[in-house]
Amino acid sequence: MVKLHDLIFEPYISGEDINKAIDAIAEKLNADYKDECPIFLSVLNGSFMFSSEVMKKFKGECEIHFVKLGSYEGTGSTGEVKTLIGLTKSLAGKRVVILEDIVDTGGTLKELDKILKEKNVADYKIATLFYKPSIYREKFKLDYTGIEIPNEFIVGYGLDYDGLGRNLTSVYKRKS
């Protein structure tokens, strides 16, 4: 059990299972971008650990850039995605791989799609470590999915509850 602020969280996904999921994603990325130099677009803050591991396991040349979008307050989404830190480098004509910690409703992806179209990228694919299919509302194809989960509030491995829990190497769910 872990207590963060006023909530108790129980073990949910082991670090070993997370690493296996990342290995599988990295293997597919290495195959799909074998002779290319993709730009990994890490969505902060939550995807920093996932992005770091993907970068370490990618065997070719690549770049990484960061964007910070936010929609959560406490344990729930506000439903409004805000750009907190935007892209500063041109991505025109580049192949981009979005690295997301978690895809739930898809609101962040909708905002990223708009941003990447404005930046005139050649194309982009989406890689997510965690995916909640039961609440996903958008049309964007998830090209690389690590672990599908039900609609549970989780922390750890980059995901937080009001700033706490990102450093946990396993994932915990809110105790009911």
Describe this entry's structure for a reader.
The strands form two sheets. The protein has a six-stranded mixed β-sheet, sandwiched between helices. The protein has a four-stranded antiparallel β-sheet with strand order 1-2-10-9. The protein is globular and about 45 Å long. α1 crosses α2 (48-57). It has one domain: Rossmann fold (3-Layer(aba) Sandwich), CATH 3.40.50.2020. It is of the alpha/beta class. The protein contains three helices and ten strands; from the N terminus they run ββαβαβββαββββ.
Uncertain spans: none
The top level CATH class name: Alpha Beta
Strand content: 35-45%
CATH architecture: 3-Layer(aba) Sandwich
Report Rg. Answer: 16 Å
Tell me the structural class.
alpha/beta
Helicity level, as a percent range? 10-25%
Ends: how far apart? 12 Å
Number of helices: 3
CATH topology: Rossmann fold
Key descriptive features of the protein:
176 residues; alpha/beta; Rossmann fold; 6-stranded mixed β-sheet; 3 helices; 10 strands; 38% strand
Short description:
The protein is an alpha/beta fold. It has helices at 15-32, 48-57, 107-118; strands at residues 2-4, 7-13, 39-44, 63-73, 76-85, 95-103, 123-131, 144-148, 154-155, 171-174. Helix content is 23%, strand content 38%.
Annotate the secondary structure layout:
Layout: E1 2-4, E2 7-13, H1 15-32, E3 39-44, H2 48-57, E4 63-73, E5 76-85, E6 95-103, H3 107-118, E7 123-131, E8 144-148, E9 154-155, E10 171-174
Parallel strand pairs: 3-4, 3-6, 6-7, 7-8
Antiparallel strand pairs: 1-2, 2-10, 4-5, 9-10
